[in-house]
Design a protein that fits this description.
The protein is α+β, with helices and mostly antiparallel strands and about 425 residues long. The protein is built from 13 helices and 23 strands. The chain binds adenosine-5'-triphosphate.
Amino acid sequence: MTEPTLETISNLAKKRGFVFQSSEIYGGIRSAYDYGPLGVELLRNVKEEWWRTMVQLRDDIVGLDSAILQARQVWQASGHEEVFTDPLVECRNCNARHRLDKLEDPDTCPTCGKTGTFTEPKPFHLMFRTHMGPVDSDENLIYLRPETAQGIFTNFENIRRTNRLKLPFGIAQVGKSFRNEITPGQFVFRTREFEQMEMEFFVRSEEADEWFAYWQEERFNWYLGLGMTESNLRIRPHEADELSHYSVGTVDIEYRFPWDWDELEGIANRADFDLRQHAEHSGVDLRYYDQDTDERFFPYVIEPAAGATRTTFAFLIDAYVEEKVNDETRTVLRLHHRLAPYKVAILPLSKKEELIGPAERIASELRKRWMVELDVTQSIGRRYRRQDEIGTPFAVTVDFDTLEDDAVTVRDRDSMKQDRVSIDRLLEYLGERLG
Ligand code: ATP
């Protein structure tokens, strides 16, 4: 079994309709991607699993969906307007631009291979700018949000008050963010438009270290619970010179991508930086009032910040397996059942009306509960191969015996074991396995 390359995964994603380049008919832009019929299901399932774990299954976290467009003051208070930059260098030989802190050798241009040709690093601003309203003036300048977190901080008091929340509590948000990255790349790993899943957990300062450790463990286990290979995951603490301007401690959860270890999620102790800044800049008192002790203070914040699109990509890579079956290579996506785009495929053995009828009836029954694909094209072997390649956990074959015994053959994606199951027990059979 060989490990998939970046190319293998991006080819599969294109071929099967997971991901397409944005504006592909015009040559494509490398900054953004479109999620096709399978990709959108996988991405939705990843976000849904995050939400289920972080919000639904807990009584100390609530959700939010804040606007992408926010007042410019938000980004002045958060420090982004001033310091949200990456160091940009340009090669004097080939004019390629690179992000200095991501270069393997900071003196050598990876594009032309020349050494000592870089200009002095310049801070490059990562926020997208636009204007609100009909006038393109400086007063109307606003930014597309580069993270979802600030919408949580600016709503801290609204949410605490309306939901009568007591420390410790968290606010979770999933949504689009935009960064004008110097070098987008590695397929959907780094794009200029992407989706994040972030949660801000507010705690008393003296409990911050404990919660910081707690969230590292919780988040690490989330990936494992969805089937990610443990040896492909690690937690890496940031060095002091890597820390963001707001952080007093950060670790990254990293995945072993085809090119190297790289970040899936950052978990930071943001101290009381954000609430304090917004209180100062807005003039609104954002301190928390503790009735029991009659104290007023800024809570500390522990933030697990993951990328939804990047994480989806990692799940895709991790699930990819090529194996030998009877001297043939079988490609299979061993996606966790909860993440698989389709849960069940219904495959009538022939296109004859007498088989299509029952197949359609079974499909419409199962659709009430799961995403189901009814596939009548091509040979049964090719259809199994397609379902393996898109990670469908179960394939249900309707054959001529079905007309006699009211039963179907259910094939398990991973073991390829087949069971004959009567149609009236099918829902129960699949329910026990899919949940
Ligand atoms: P990097 O150092 O890779 O630029 P970062 O440390 O600035 O990333 P954070 O600000 O911690 O990233 O963002 C939280 C998460 O959002 C990241 O772990 C990643 O999963 C996701 N993310 C950030 N930038 C991008 C991007 N350009 N494309 C896709 N996902 C991203």
